[in-house]
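User: Please predict the structure of the protein below. I'd like the answer in structure-token form so I can feed it into my own downstream comparison script.

Assistant: Understood. Taking the following sequence of 122 residues as input:
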Amino acid sequence: MPDKINILVVDDEDELRTLVRYELEQRGFDVTEADSGEAALDLLKTSRPRIVVLDIRMPGMSGLEVLEIIRKENLADKIIMLTGVDELKIARDSLELGANDFLTKPYDIRTLLACIDRVLKE
């Protein structure tokens, strides 16, 4: 049996992180959570997830700042950015900084799974 794909979910919204973790674990993924950019970077010092699902707007360090560090230090293979509908320009900018894809909030689990499948095939 192949190893589980490890996904790090980074979002300051506790309920969203918990729901996403539950849904992904039910589908066989190994999920780790972080509630801030700083916490995510701390986790990335000791593990290298295959995918990071990263919110753009968070208190403290923004998702774009975290994205830049992840790419600079090669801390994850694939990055999916999460953004509000009014932040589409920022989301597009994130692609230029090295994100593989982005989703707009709110989204459902089927959309996230399709996005994960798409970036894994890149």
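That's the full token string. Helices lie at 14-26, 37-44, 63-73, 88-96, 109-120.
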